[in-house]
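[09:14] KT: can someone run the structure on this one? pasting the chain below
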Amino acid sequence: MHRLISFRSSALSLRPPPPRPFARIRLRRMATENAGTHKDPVTGELISKTELKRREKARKIEAAKAEKAAAAPQKAAAAPKSSAADEENLSPNQYYEIRSRHIQKLKETQNPNPYPHKFEVSISITDFVDKYGPEGKIAAGQKLDGVTECLAGRIHNVRASGQNLRFYDLHGEGTKVQIMANKQDAKDPNTFVTDHEHFRRGDIVGVVGTPSRTKKGELSIAPSQMILLAPNLHQLPSAHFGLKDQETRYRKRYLDLILNEDTRRIFVTRSRIINYIRRFFDNLGFLEVETPMTSMIAGGATAKPFITHHNDLDLDLYLRIAPELYLKELVVGGLDRVYEIGRVFRNEGIDLTHNPEFTICEFYMAYADMYDIMDLTESLVEGMVKYLTGGKTTLDYHPEGKGSDKVYQLEFKRPWPRYDMIGTLEEKLGVKFPPSDTLHTDEANRFLRDLCKKHNVECSEPRTNARLLDKLVGEYIEPLCISPAFIVGHPQVMSPLAKYHRSRPGLCERFEGFMCGKEFCNAYTELNDPFEQRLRFEEQIRQKEQGDDEAQGIDETFVDALEHGLPPTGGWGIGIDRLVMFLTDSTNIKEVLLFPAMKPIETAANTTGAVGPSGQV
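[09:31] RB: done, structure tokens below
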């Protein structure tokens, strides 16, 4: 006890004395200095006085180094070089500092204004190439005197041939044209050199000039005037190496689109695919509709939802995982053919083929069944491939990346192969499955567990009959589907919204479309019996109680709609992102999403800041 008291006494004696008045004043001063009360003149950020001083000092040092580096070649060279050439050896930070100061100076002097309000474009770069590019239109080394065009685009490459001749590559709309700027063509030859000192790689410029060809025959525009429309303050990656880093490409998609023509091609193709789907359904008399993004029940699919909150109603809502139930309610209301293209949200993992939000197309067609929808699917996708390829029905797909030797030749010509689920599993595993009308029982669950264990097929809890079957299909049937194929004959336990099979008890009328071993569409003969639908929903509730977060709840409004009468209907959904992957030879879903989900960048400076687009802080 004495030792304990002595220890406590020692500990008490080690405590620091309370801060004196002048210490409190100093602490308050430090807190004020650390607050963001001073504006950085370059970046516009509000930072502390100490941080501002540190940045200014660092900038002075970097600027001195940059000026010294820029001055050195001028002493050594016989002829003066442009400052743009000198800047190639600068670090990105040095370049940004110098370029920012230059543009700030132009903003002050307005000579010229680096951010003008308007530039009249008389012709696009694409149309310029189409109009003046054909052989014989302009002879080599000649200009079309008396013709003036106004182009606008982004400068990619800059080449100087002395002080009086500059060449630029002007890019826009996925094509390019050369600018051949000669002092003798300039509106004011006396300011030619100083005017062109303002232009750098990445700048957006307007060009007023005459269509021409170089002596080597390259189509060009000979400008009388070039106008800076929007400067690029950052150093673009070199034209030779380009932008290869995947993280940067996904987080800064604007930079990826500037530098990589293949990225632009993918998203142009994506737009054409969606446009084709719209025209296909419009021509068949379908009506495009929009349904809610948020609802009180997450239904229409088997997936874990995102939860959001409505402040005014003080109510938690789900972001939709599928528009299915709303669309079928519209068919009940007499809109016999409806479709929707839009975003859905599923709170699942991110991998090469999954993104938490993705684009889906669903349609519902009264008086059709799964067999009609199969024919429609084949017609849609085969026609789409012909539209994209100019008439071919085959495409090459590299499952290990475009640079790999492994390649699948996908054949889209109708009819596609069809694999019966239970029959194919029996053939591949060498077993006889229980009768299909007993696949929902506990005995069937034990059979499926033993089968998975025997063949080393992993299935995490909850190990429901539906999940066990799904894992077996993924292991033994999906890899067979390289070219487009259908898997049919699903047990009812796997399909709570599909109608029972008309001739095979225990199964339902459903098919899934697969290619390259991955699902891309799903369709049913829709269940329109409200009594059966309620029983299916109740089974989903039991699965949810077993721990299946993806199981659906009971949607009383939808059951009420069925009680008013849903005609025999075929329904279908397709994942557009995954379809675009296969049709553009992309192995990563991030390649076909303009702004994919990304983890935030965590650094000491921004972990407490606001998160920007694509998760970028």
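[09:33] KT: thanks! Confidence is low (pLDDT under 50) at residues 1-34, 73-80.
[09:34] RB: yep, looked fine to me
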